[in-house]
């Protein structure tokens, strides 16, 4: 089943021109010298999506090129999300004598220097030689020092006294004697943590590090943190979500998309639960009982996306009537709602921001014991959300980092580099402890016939069936990290970008990287069994 997509005119902001010169300040082009056959492809594109590594202006990555000392330090600091502009552990600013304040790498080198990660790399005159190619031994030692710093004192002492000896004996590198004996405890810790490895001929400590190796190493450093982090998982039970009811035990919260704001005349508004797709369904009792049995939080979602939302936010009598109506449903013991999620979409005019904040204040005052969740759209062109005020009022903020879809350029809904950029922009204002990354399970399909392309949003079930059909070409589209599907039929040529299990998993990885509060799944009925397997307890 195909649904003709409606693309917001605001999405025209996406393009700087009618071509593919995107106005977003992120890389949305693939590297010409990193292919599907390259073992480091995932690492390069993942770090590129995070903005940690860059390519060159000719769209190459140059994987075989070597990396300088200062370039690697920058990668490591960025991967650790160190605020280099003000980075200071000891409180005493400083850097090696040959890294001056005006040098581009100064903030990064200074941050590492203050942490005493670089002491072994300084010569007798205190020089760092930032332009020198960094060696594998130096990388292992820097990374090992950084990782050891994160351990407990007891763990560090054990490793320094005995652990590295055991690791050295276990690895038995053919060229272990070539390693600097003063650095063994650090270098072997990087090996122990799976960050670096050797081959049948040895560890090659004096060999210069290549850009492809650097990507793999930095990715593994990040993964050591990602693997320790947990996320709250919120499922939106809306529209056709009954098939997913048995997956509620995998959630920390279920948000019921069972209501919307009804505002048709000045001074008159109410919570509507009986019409449109956002309504309390027949058989709701089973759904609530399932959530209760899973012992998870239950939010009521209130949706509104009509153009007169800005008028409602200036209509105080209508707001008062609506809040009273909402309170009546929210406190109805039959449902047992434990919180409310306000999903008011489409506020593009900055003049609406104070009105929306004032409405949320009034709502919060009326239901002080119910946690408030507020969904927001990325701030590129939705200016009617004062993130600072919303963050102060809300217990949770859900960032709907999707619907970047643009018809003419065939930009899909949620390319990972744009999701990352939206998260970073939001984190500049909203604390990570409050921020939830919204993930929308969807597909964007362009059908081209007679030189004209039309955009559709096919049903997930139809896309899954198509994937199993002979004659369909599919691959992971990079840097988007979305499944790309193409085929031909009597309607024309078809190009689909699909949020499959691998791309959902990558967005979960991104949320963990930033240490966000959680993720939300819109909507539960669209997620496949392989998607749900991502959230099964390990």
TrEMBL record:
According to the record, the signal peptide region is 1-23
Q: Name one GO molecular function term.
A: hydrolase activity
- Species assigned in the record: Paenibacillus violae
The residue ranges of the GH18 domain are 231-538
| Protein name per its UniProtKB record | Glycosyl hydrolase family 18 protein
SLH domain sequence ranges: 27-90, 92-157, 170-232
Report keywords, A-Z: Hydrolase, Signal
**Has UniProt tagged this entry with the keyword tRNA-binding?**
no
The top of its lineage is: Bacteria, Bacillati, Bacillota, Bacilli, Bacillales
């Amino acid at each position: 089943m195909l649904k003709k997509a409606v693309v917001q005119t605001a999405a025209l902001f996406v393009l700087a021109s009618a071509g593919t010169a995107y106005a977003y300040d992120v890389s949305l082009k693939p590297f010409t010298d990193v292919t599907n056959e390259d073992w480091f492809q995932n690492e390069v594109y993942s770090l590129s999506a995070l903005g940690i590594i860059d390519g060159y202006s000719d769209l190459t990555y140059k994987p075989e090129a070597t990396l300088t000392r200062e370039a690697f330090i920058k990668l490591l600091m960025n991967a650790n999300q160190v605020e280099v502009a003000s980075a200071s552990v000891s409180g005493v600013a400083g850097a090696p004598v040959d890294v001056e304040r005006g040098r581009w790498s100064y903030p990064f080198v200074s941050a590492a220097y203050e942490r005493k990660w670089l002491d072994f790399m300084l010569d007798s005159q205190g020089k760092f030689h930032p332009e020198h190619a960094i060696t594998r031994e130096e990388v292992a030692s820097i990374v090992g020092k950084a990782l050891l710093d994160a351990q407990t004192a007891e763990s560090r002492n054990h490793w320094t006294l005995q652990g590295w000896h055991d690791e050295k004996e276990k690895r038995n590198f053919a060229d272990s004697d070539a390693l600097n004996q003063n650095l063994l405890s650090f270098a072997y810790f990087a090996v122990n943590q799976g960050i670096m490895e050797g081959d049948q001929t040895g560890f090659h400590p004096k060999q210069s590090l290549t850009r492809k190796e650097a990507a793999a190493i930095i990715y593994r450093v990040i993964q050591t943190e990602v693997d320790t982090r947990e996320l709250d998982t919120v499922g939106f039970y809306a529209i056709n979500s009954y098939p997913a009811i048995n997956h509620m035990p995998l959630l920390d919260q279920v948000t019921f998309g069972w209501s919307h704001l009804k505002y048709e005349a000045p001074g008159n508004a109410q919570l509507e639960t009986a019409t449109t797709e956002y309504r309390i369904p027949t058989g709701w009792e089973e759904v609530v009982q399932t959530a209760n049995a899973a012992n998870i939080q239950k939010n009521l979602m209130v949706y509104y996306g009509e153009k007169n939302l800005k008028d409602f936010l200036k209509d105080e009598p209508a707001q008062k009537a609506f809040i009273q109506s909402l309170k009546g449903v929210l406190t109805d013991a039959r449902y047992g709602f434990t919180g409310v999620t306000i999903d008011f979409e489409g506020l593009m005019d900055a003049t609406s921001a104070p009105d929306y904040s004032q409405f949320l204040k009034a709502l919060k005052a009326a239901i002080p014991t119910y946690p408030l969740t507020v969904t927001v759209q990325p701030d590129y062109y939705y200016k009617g959300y004062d993130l600072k005020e919303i963050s102060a009022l809300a217990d949770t903020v859900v960032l709907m980092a999707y619907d970047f879809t643009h018809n003419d350029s065939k930009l899909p809904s949620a390319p990972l580099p744009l999701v990352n950029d939206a998260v970073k922009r939001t984190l500049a204002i909203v604390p990570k402890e409050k921020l939830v990354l919204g993930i929308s399970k969807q597909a964007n399909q362009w059908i081209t016939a007679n030189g004209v392309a039309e955009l559709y949003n096919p049903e997930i079930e139809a896309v899954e069936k198509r994937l199993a059909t002979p004659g369909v070409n599919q691959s992971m589209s990079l840097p988007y990290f979305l499944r790309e599907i193409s085929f031909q039929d009597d309607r024309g040529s078809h190009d689909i970008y699909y949020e499959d299990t691998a791309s959902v998993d990558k967005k979960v990885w991104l949320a963990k990287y930033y240490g966000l509060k959680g993720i939300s799944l819109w909507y539960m009925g669209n997620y496949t069994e392989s998607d749900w397997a991502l959230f099964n307890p390990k």
